[in-house]
Design a protein that fits this description.
Blueprint (H helix, E strand, L loop, with lengths): L11 H11 L4 E5 L5 E5 H16 L8 E5 L4 H12 L3 E4 L6 H11 L3 E4 L4 H7 L8 E4 L5 H6 L3 E3 H6 L15 E6 L9 E5 H12 L11 E4 L6 H4 L1 H8 L2 E4 L6 H11 L3 E4 L1 H14 L8 E4 L6 H11 L2 E7 L6 E4 L11 H7 L10 E6 L16 E7 L20 E9 L5 E6 L4 E3 L2 E3 L1 H9 L4 E11 L3 E10 L7 H8 L11 E4 L13 H8 L2 H5 L3
Parallel strand pairs: 1-11, 3-4, 3-5, 4-8, 5-6, 6-7, 10-11, 10-12, 12-13, 13-14, 23-24
Antiparallel strand pairs: 1-2, 8-9, 14-15, 16-17, 17-18, 18-19, 20-21, 22-23
The structure holds adenosine-5'-diphosphate.
Adenosine-5'-diphosphate (ADP) binds next to strand 14, strand 18 and strand 19.
Length: 545
């Protein structure tokens, strides 16, 4: 017997329809590529999305064709997203910070038919245009610009394209399992692989990520997704904000601390989302300017481990609750988020604070387990202590990669994340490391994350990364790459002394190498692969064979 309730497919178009109907005048504030600001709202975003859908309908495209975007977080980009997915096409967001060869690889792999780009990326588009034969239409997300047209004669301009179009469009009726968007892993470990989200997975992910025990979004919020729309769909915020009716501030290309402080203060942002390197920049800028970030009630940090010292700084100095979350491109991204349970409120503040360090527990819709090996044959104990290979399954988790027909799953249908983690009885998960970043010293594992968390708590260190360096005797030993604060003259010995009594002696890094800058990739994460290439043999050079 089938239940007697209405069935409506879970479609992305229903999100923008909801926002336009019930939150039409809720503001979307957007920084343009030239630094100017545009104030719009959900109602106008929906109208322009429909105008753009009419533009796409005039192209010769078939359902599920891919439309690529290379753009910052801004209102035009947001409009195109809804126009693309709402008309049954697949919105393929591209990370502009990849190398041109990687970019053309991705465009060709996706077989993109349309390429939409922000003006600032014209040189990048020019550098790949001859190696991406599938692209039939180039659209610059701006008003007409003579220089751009000169450089790329067959380009169209978004503002001109939508100007004359009707704002009436019947969103395409689709099966909810149809593809809606495509995102490639950022390739910090290996070649980029495409993850093809569905309408259903996206809508369910929006429900789960908005919950009070997740990102805690409400129609009272004004959110600032600093995480780019090309990084796992800005963690799904353009969808969940429409579902909930949040106001949004879209920060455009300027993601430095000072610009973010200004946006938060001027527009009274209540909740902001981004990776730890972004928050480090924000903290530094706020200290410098004296801003108290008064409106900011909470910020979500994920994409890389959040050092406990960062949680403390936001809480003590800005009364802002920092929520640690974990996820990946393959998981849409939300896999775990750290919110307390009632029983934790019975413990003292120090205990509660400690509880928040971990990456958190899974929201309804996904499950986590840790296993002895990546094949998932045997589960490790859920004791909060025994590390294992972290695996996940659920409604918004990848099954297979785009264009690769074999399953990406274990025999019993879990996805192995490549992370090493512990789980406790309540499902709180703590990442020890990426399996590729773990340091294997004399047969024992050392977590680079743990060593980084200690070092970054030193007030004179601005950014740190711990990597494995090859070692003649121990196979691998940890070394610390560190960027000192501007006025610091901290020595290697002082940094090493800082580790004493905080960790077992044999885990203390062998070397500290001070650098002027630590390389970060397109999504703001530290590029440990690059660091290993540069510094991975320093200990071999020092140790006599
Ligand atoms: P890439 O794999 O190219 O970095 P993703 O953005 O998909 O692209 O990265 C997912 C990975 O980021 C996870 O597998 C994990 O290693 C790391 N990660 C994400 N969130 C956290 C977190 N809160 N703590 C530690 N690591 C995290």
């Amino acid at each position: 017997m089938i239940g007697n309730m209405m069935f409506q497919p879970l479609l992305i178009s229903s999100l923008i329809e909801h926002a336009a109907t019930y939150h039409a005048d809720t503001e979307i504030i957007s920084k343009n590529t030239d630094g100017s600001m545009t104030h719009t709202n959900w109602g106008q975003v929906a109208q322009n999305a429909k105008r753009f859908a009419n533009v796409l309908a005039s192209f010769d495209l078939a359902i599920s064709d891919r439309v690529a975007t290379i753009a910052w977080n801004n209102h035009r980009h947001l409009e195109t997203w809804y126009g693309i997915s709402g008309s049954g096409l697949v919105c393929h967001t591209i990370n502009p910070r990849l190398f041109p060869e990687q970019l053309s690889y991705i465009v060709n792999d996706a077989d993109d038919k349309v390429l939409i780009f922000d003006k600032t990326f014209i040189n990048l588009v020019l550098s790949i245009k001859d190696s991406i034969p599938s692209v039939e239409h180039f659209i610059c997300l701006d008003a007409f610009d003579r220089d751009i047209q000169k450089a790329l004669p067959n380009v169209c301009f978004y503002d001109d394209l939508i100007k004359e179009r009707s704002d009436q469009f019947e969103w395409t009726e689709l099966d909810e399992a149809k593809a809606s968007s495509l995102c490639y892993t950022s390739g910090t470990t290996g070649n980029p692989k495409g993850v093809l989200y569905s309408h259903r997975s996206t809508v369910l992910h929006s429900y789960a990520s908005s919950l009070p025990d997740s990102f805690n979004f409400s129609a009272l919020d004004r959110i600032l997704p600093v995480v780019p729309m090309f990084h796992v769909n800005a963690w799904g915020t353009p969808y969940s904000a429409a579902m909930i009716g949040c106001s949004m501030v879209l920060p455009g290309p300027m993601l430095d601390g000072a610009s973010l402080v200004q946006l938060i203060d001027q527009y009274k942002v209540t909740n902001a989302l981004g990776v730890p390197t972004i928050w480090q920049g924000l903290l530094n800028a706020a200290y410098q300017s004296g801003s108290k970030l008064e409106s900011l009630v909470r910020n979500i940090v994920g994409g890389a481990a959040c050092p406990p010292s960062m949680l403390k700084a936001f809480k003590d100095d800005f009364q802002c609750e920092t929520i640690h979350a974990w996820g990946m491109t393959e998981t849409s991204p939300l896999g775990a988020v750290n919110q307390l349970k009632a029983k934790h409120l019975e413990t003292d503040e120090t205990e509660q604070f400690k509880q928040r360090f971990a990456q958190g527990r899974p929201p309804y819709g996904v499950s986590l387990r840790v296993c002895h090996d990546e094949k998932g044959v045997e589960e490790s104990a859920r004791d909060g202590y025994t590390p294992g290979h972290l695996q996940i399954k659920g409604h918004w988790i990848v099954e297979s990669y785009f264009n690769q027909f074999d399953h990406a799953l274990t025999q019993d249908n879990w996805f192995d994340t490549g992370d090493i983690a512990t789980l406790d009885q309540d499902g709180y998960m703590q990442i020890s490391d990426r399996s590729k970043d773990l340091i294997k010293s004399g047969g024992e594992w050392i977590s680079s994350v743990e060593l980084e968390n200690i070092a970054i708590a030193h007030p004179e260190l601005e950014m740190v990364a711990v990597i494995a360096a090859s070692h003649a005797k121990w196979d691998e030993r940890p070394i610390l790459i560190a960027k000192r604060a501007a006025v610091s003259s901290l020595s290697e010995a002082e940094v090493l002394a800082f580790y004493h009594n905080k960790i077992a002696k044999w885990q203390i890094p062998d070397r500290v190498i001070f650098v002027d800058a630590i390389p970060v990739g397109g999504t703001g994460k530290i590029l440990k692969k690059d660091l290993r290439e540069i510094y991975g043999s320093v200990l071999l050079e020092e140790t006599p064979a």
